Batch of 2 targets.
Target 1
Amino acid sequence: MDGQNKKAKILAATTPEEIDIAVMEAANLLRNGEVVALPTETVYGLAANALNPQAVEKIFKTKGRPSNNPLIVHISNLDMAKRCVKQWNNAAQRLADNFWPGPLTIVLPKSEIIPGIVTGGGDTVGIRYPAHTVIQLVIERCGFPLAAPSANISNRVSATTAAHVFKQLGDKIALIVDGGACRVGIESTVFDLTSNPPRVLRPGIIHEESINAVLSGLKIQIEKGLNQKTLRSPGLLKKHYSPLAKLICLQWQNENELKEKLAALGCKPSLTSILCFSDPPSKLGKVTMMPKQAVSYARAIYAELHNCDEAGARWIIVQTPPDSPEWRAIHDRLRRAAAE
Ligand code: TXA
Ligand code: MG
């Protein structure tokens, strides 16, 4: 954004009239090669014209993102998706039929219309058809696909409200469109159809088992589990999604056990936030009860991490969630938020 001390404008986009105005303003800026923060159903995105390298460069600069970390390209119809890739195939069609619009990114060989800066210099592109009316309308109005990473400073916690975006990027961009709190709450599943076997690069609410069920009959074997050794998606292994406080996942049977564990870790109770879904301690830290269902937990977790940072917590203790497929993406985010 030009000039100093300017702050992003936040435009509400809830009523049809508000949506009309916000979509028009966002599309105008995007057509002029600017970046705009837009709501999606997963997390807020920092969008730019995916076909304009100078515009895309602004995304990397604004976020402080390494240039080798590819961006997801957002589309609003299947024809647009097909124009972005070299070859559309049966597997992609079936995934699109079942999960789009929705929180699934499909990685395919890129077509020549996608500039190298979008894909981190690579030959493949991640495509997603988001399930939020506002970004769909913006893409339709622009007529071009939007490159959009999560709207946060690189490696920090993603934004699930316009206020979260404002806190991290408010002095770096001109416009944030406020489409309400994100319904899914964690980033899309990234599924790579270019590797053999195809595999999940980043777990999300749509898990491996669902993808497998949809692809069954196509004689496609997908790789089971995250294979950390062969994972080749920059930005997917390192420390990521990090709050300012130190995040630690713990299990406990009773308050005494938790107290001992906190003492051993050197956590000061007055500066400790505890996110749990059962056995809340009564005399330790600032306790927040989290939802017991994975889908609701996912919707809430980033907002709670933002709250802990706002409250000035030095430590965030997260009660380790259950171990089943629907919790896999949450474990993944917590593990990386906890990484040193
Ligand atoms: O839900 C989401 O996916 C959100 C919303 C805004 O759509 N976007 C998002 O973007 O989370 P970002 O850039 O924060 O994360 C995208 C991840 C990165 O870790 C990137 O490395 C990976 O997807 N990725 C993107 N394109 C890829 C490609 N061609 N091959 C492998 N990994 C890719
Ligand atoms: Mg991100």
Target 2
Amino acid sequence: MTTTSYVASLFSLEGKTALVTGPGTGIGQSIAVALASSGADIIGTYHHTPLDETKSLVEQTGRSFHAVQVDFADPPSAQQDIDALLKQHTIDILINNAGTIKREQAAHYSEEDWHTVINVNMNSLFFLTQKVGQQMLKKGQGKIVNIASLLSFQGGVFVPAYTASKHAVAGLTKAFANEWASQHIQVNAIAPGYIATNNTQAIRDDENRNEEILKRIPAGRWGRPEDLAGAAVFLSSPASDYMNGHILAVDGGWLAR
Ligand code: NAP
């Protein structure tokens, strides 16, 4: 094998099927297209956003795309949808990307918003990982990549449920990794910095907040969804076979500051 083909094989996802939650927009779409470009067929879950654009982008790489509707704010119904999906498909790579955010001062945070954020970002992530993990344990291999956040490490402002849920994502990444590393299932996470997506539209629209954030990012710019593509392929591929429970910041240097 030449050096080039050896390195290419380390990052190849040929013959793999990846389940990506929430690939209709932003980070999820960029990751789904990157995994397909490395050879994986893609299954995407959506709640509201149709996946036609992502399907077209994935199919342009020559890989297949299958969409399934799941509401992660309702964990019992999401679990039924996932059970049905797993009867028909074997998953090699799980990307837990779907996430939501509700902004309000902690003193006025509503119970409804609290439960929605915790259900989508933490509870459904746990149960989906558990179910896909059961399938991977039978197969004796798998890759799981959770999308964490800078708020897996920091407190944030006006987003208490999001912060709690993303700290939990970091904790669950390590908890699952510890149990499954010896079964050849690698569980890791990516902590994106400030990325220009729907999720951050409100703070980008706030001139003062936008300026404050930009000043603090050593790279001097907001991240783009494509900035996460390489890390996602790496953590989904044989190149990361000896990585377990790691949370990889892709943040333009924010945490280093
Ligand atoms: P986004 O474009 O708003 O994507 C969020 C995705 O989550 C959407 O595809 C959405 O699907 C899905 N989702 C939300 N609620 C759902 C529900 N109840 N059931 C099923 N799916 C649901 O924002 P994004 O920035 O790319 O976010 C992707 C991930 O990155 C999230 O976990 C977010 O917390 C994380 N993240 C983002 C940033 C950032 O700066 N943008 C930074 C750190 C971490 P529908 O559109 O179909 O509802």
